Amino acid sequence: MRPSSRIIFLGILTGLLSSCGGDTRDTHPQTQVVSAPAPQQAEIVIDGFRSDFVVKRSAQGIVLSEKNTSIEKSYSGFPIFRFKDSIVDTAMVTKLQGLTDKDVNALLELYVAFFNRVPDSQGLSYWASKLKQGVTIDQIAASFYEAAVLYPELTGYTTGMSNTAFIQIIYRNVLGRQTVDQAGLDYWNAELSSGRSSRARLVWTILNAAHTFKNDVTYGAVADLLDRKIEVARYVAIDEGVSYTSDAENIRKGMEIAKAVTPTDSSTAKLAVGFSDVGVQAKLLSLSVDTSNQFLTVAGEQGKLGYLYNGNYYLKGATYTLYTKNFGKNALYEYEVATAGWNKAEALKNLNAFGARGFYFYGTYLFGDGTKSLFIHNKSDPRVFKYRLEDVYSTSKETLTKLESLGKDGYQFTGSFIFSDGTVGIYVDENANGATYQYKLLPGSGSVDSEVSRLNELGAQGFRFAGSIAQSDGIFTIYQKRSTDTQSYRYAALANVDDYSGWLSQLNSQGNRGYRFLMSSAFGVGATYSTANIYVQGDSIRHSPFGF
């Protein structure tokens, strides 16, 4: 909440809530901290949107990197950046020094409880300074309560609202519950009606009660939801230091972000901030190469900028090459090609020779000078790769048995390829700290919606899409889970776009949300046939033939 003359005094009403129900918060005025005036913080105006840049923090200062050009500029100290759409205070961690985690969390919880929003950095900085000056959490809380009443159109609070209506809002904001059980409603109504609690004090009481449900079989989700909201609030206002360009936008975005939090997921809410320094930037380059050497020249130039080759695509009469860059990863890529046409023995020998140098097999491609095998090396990745070739099987049962057997030995399936003496499945040991792999092989879904629903269901369990395979008993989708991974994956389907500007806009819009392009695919047959672009969030390391 960004303070204005109308609500400066509002920093005082909600902390009354802390002395009820066994709350141990200190409601006495704190000793005022007297220190030297803080140095003037530099403000830098940036002609661009926050999503166009990556902000890198270090002990020495800030490095601002433009995504499209990779141009970097260093700033000493920790300035405030004023972008076209937001304000970023890179000194928030410093500004909160001297406060305990309990104090900071209490401030964050006030925003959630009274407004169901995450704070902006300017508002949080203001109230943190008040705490340091000796204003109590109770007094700040009281201010939030008064502010909530002043803005009924935003908060739902009114001066004449019934106790029941007040309790319903607190249940919704703090507990994530749209209805109040009758026993709970009767109990809290009695507390308010008897005068044993004020409305402000009741907020603290319910906040404290929510935390006590942690790991409870029945109500554990209540505590999980509150914890997730505080996690996101900390991410927005402290880790990223974000405020928006007006009070109204701070409130609107803060509510939008908080609404996206669930008891089990905070990633969607973090993406709602509007940018991601671990997102994906896409380039579509007009295909002007013919020979493999020409390709290596262009790909090498892009690789030095951190862009990875993602294939060629035909759009309205022209062919374009897609390159993507994962932000937050200092990856640089180099490319090599080798003459294709190997038999299986030659293939295994060459694959392992390249793998021993850290080059990953990316498939075979037709150039003007013939078909070539493409290998890509992530220069920041010290791993080497060991390959093995296995016969392919005609039935899904046989294939799944083979996948599971090799997965237990640490081998990941990368795809089936045709060599001069037959078709084989290529498996790779990624030297991934003893990782093993678990597989699911499921029949293809009949529609875009059903496929994405299944992708997200399995992605939440840690399974990633690993390709499709034709078997005698149907077309099957392969899902793969690495034992050392703790992350989950989310998928989204968008309409195919067949023009340059439209698809590039879609690629980067999804990229700024942390989603990278996975594939363009067809679903269903006959009347149910449709196509869609599939994007994935969380799977930033791509492997052949579905990425690297």
TrEMBL record:
Domain DUF4214: 110-147, 157-209
Pfam families for this protein: DUF4214
Protein name, UniProt field: DUF4214 domain-containing protein
